[in-house]
Structure to design on (389 residues):
């Protein structure tokens, strides 16, 4: 049996001081790509993210595979010494604590680079440097500030997106910065301090709406009351559910009209282009909605599939566990929860040379690898006990 192919980040060691979503997302991506990611958790019980409930109940399960866990008391001399020894062996440090928190422990970038000049240090923050950098940020906070909540909800009712989009994307941008710094280090030997921030990430997400205003001099309307860029691009009621259907090119419009019996619309010269159709949606959308309401969801989707038209069923997150594409393509990975039950979590949305990135290490228990890691650092069992106490 041949040995498994090397992963892109084999040989890179990452020390992760983080919790919740943004920092752990950054560590997860690096871990899946092959890095040795060591998650430093607080003594005695580990990361509080493990014990979140409600909308945070799944955070640890999706962000912690392929990592090793060490529990350290950073307020003790022994624990801090172990952390410093560990960082001396690291290529990358990730942290997502309040500004100044790591520096007060002696674990800020300026202090650490003296012993490890090639260190790449990624700080996951609420805001980049500027007037807001002292503020506490959450995904909701920056979605409200940056206009994403305004764009998502109906007029007068700002609504946060239904996922931790900024935390997750902020972690992704952190990875981009780390990979760029690793490339630069190959030629210069120097490390870097990378900062990725929730607010600036969210501003980047709404850049299209800012640019729309700059181009048209008209404010972008919230999604529920927007003017669509395409004539058919909506959720439709069927006889037994809802389906999203789109027709975003003139060719698709012709196919759409022929397939669903709208020959008169296809022949109408005033509807010849998408731009003209967008301005006259009130003329034909009620007819389309009435026609689709007579079909079942499966009938409508089967026709769209045969025609090559964009369509989608309206699903809930729990429905994705049985999605045939995900289950057959390696898009879901098996992990074991703290209570011993197994579940599946999404893989990285990446393939390299046709290969998906999977699970090498299951979710770690709190401090599961403390003894092994401290032994690697030359700390004996007695020191190990004191360090994690």
């Amino acid at each position: 049996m041949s040995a498994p192919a090397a992963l892109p980040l084999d040989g890179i060691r990452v020390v992760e001081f983080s919790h919740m979503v943004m920092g752990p997302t950054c560590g997860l991506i690096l871990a899946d790509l092959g890095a040795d990611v060591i998650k430093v958790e607080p003594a005695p019980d580990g990361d509080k993210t493990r014990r979140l409930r409600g909308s945070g109940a799944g955070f640890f399960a999706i962000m912690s595979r392929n990592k090793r866990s060490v529990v350290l008391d950073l307020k003790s001399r022994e624990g801090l010494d172990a952390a410093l020894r560990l960082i001396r062996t690291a290529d990358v440090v990730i942290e997502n604590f309040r500004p100044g928190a790591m520096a007060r422990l002696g674990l800020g970038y300026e202090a650490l680079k003296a012993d490890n000049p090639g260190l790449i240090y990624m700080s996951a923050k609420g805001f980049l440097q500027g007037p807001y950098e002292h503020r506490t940020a959450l995904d909701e906070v920056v979605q409200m500030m940056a206009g994403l909540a305004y764009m998502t909800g109906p007029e007068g009712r700002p609504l946060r997106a239904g996922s931790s989009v900024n935390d997750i994307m902020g972690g992704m941008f952190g990875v981009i910065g780390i990979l760029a710094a690793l490339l630069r280090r190959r030629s210069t030997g120097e490390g870097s301090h990378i900062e990725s921030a929730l607010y600036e990430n969210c501003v980047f997400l709404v850049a299209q709406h800012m640019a729309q205003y700059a181009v048209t001099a008209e404010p972008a309307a919230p999604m529920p009351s927007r003017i669509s860029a395409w004539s058919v691009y909506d959720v439709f009621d069927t006889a037994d559910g809802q389906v999203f259907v789109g027709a975003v090119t003139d060719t698709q419009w012709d196919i759409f009209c022929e397939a669903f019996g709208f020959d008169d619309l296809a022949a109408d010269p005033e509807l010849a282009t998408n731009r003209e159709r967008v301005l006259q949606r009130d003329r034909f959308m009620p007819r389309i909605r009435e026609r689709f309401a007579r079909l079942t969801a499966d009938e409508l989707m089967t026709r769209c599939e045969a025609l090559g038209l964009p369509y989608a069923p309206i699903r809930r997150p729990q429905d994705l566990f049985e999605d045939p594409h995900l289950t057959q393509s390696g898009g879901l990975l098996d992990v074991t929860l703290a209570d011993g039950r197994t579940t599946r979590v999404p893989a990285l949305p990446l393939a390299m040379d046709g290969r998906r990135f999977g699970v090498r290490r299951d979710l770690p228990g709190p401090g599961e690898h403390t003894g092994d890691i401290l032994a690697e650092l030359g700390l004996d069992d007695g020191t190990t006990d004191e360090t994690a106490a």
Notes: The first helix runs from residue 22 to 32. The chain has two domains: 13-205+359-388, 226-316. The first strand starts at residue 13 and ends at 17.
